[in-house]
Amino acid sequence: MPRDTLTGSRIRERRVMAGLKQAELAKRADISPSYLNLIEHNRRRIGGKLLVDIAHALGVEPASLTEGAETALLATLREAASGSDMAEAEFVRIEEFAGRFPGWAALLADSQRKVETLQRSVEALTDRLTHDPHLAASLHEMLSTVTAIRSAASILAEPGDIEPEWQRRFNRNIYEDSARLADTSRSLAQYLEEADSEASETNAPQDELDAVFQKYGFHLPALETPSASVEAAVDDLGQGLSQAARWLLVRVLRRYRSDAERMPLADCADTTALSGSDPFAFAARFGCDLASAMRRLAHLPDDLLPDPVGLAICDGSGVTTFRKPLAEFPLPRLGAGCALWPLYRALARPMMAHLEVMEQSARAAARHRGIAIAQPTAPARPGQDVLFESHMLIVPEPKRETSEDILQVGLTCRICPHADCAARREPSIMVASAPRRL
Question: Is pTM, for the whole model, over 0.85?
Answer without folding.
Answer: no
